[in-house]
Structure prediction request, 168 residues.
Amino acid sequence: MKVNVAPIKKVLGPKVSFEFVTTAKEFADSEFIWADGDIKVIGEAVNTGRELELSGTILVAAALKCDRCLEEYTASIEIPFAERYREDDTKEPLEQAGLSYYQGDEIHIDQVVLENIIMAEPLKRLCKEECRGLCPYCGINLNHAVCACNHQEVDPRLAVLQQLLKKQ
Ligand SMILES: [Zn+2]
Ligand SMILES: [Zn+2]
Prediction:
């Protein structure tokens, strides 16, 4: 993913828009990336004077497993990103977050896109907010069916424990 910034390198104000479409498979080693579907990056670059600022949205699709019902679902996640780039003429290392160097007329954004995707990995995975999960007694998926078990008397923390024990 290379953004051609030649038109704005010497001009403040006007924006250059960019768009890239790829797949997680093509983009990165599956070890490093939780997403496994299409990846789309749309954004704009602008010259702010000291730096070029690139910002936009990374759209990621992934097949994830629901924490509650353990079924797979497809998630579409929008990750906003912004990075500033300074032309590399000094070679001094930059220690500032959100600031990178570029050389020439193109900015390679793969590294920034990958970092943003990694940081956006969903910690809580739910097929839907109101997912009913599995019955702690019979294991039936309560989104699709009802069972005869009594769900009222169970402390939810104990229910989790029972589910864990059942899996072993
Ligand atoms: Zn679920
Ligand atoms: Zn049940």
Remarks:
- DSSP finds three helices and seven strands in the chain.
- The longest strand covers residues 72-87.
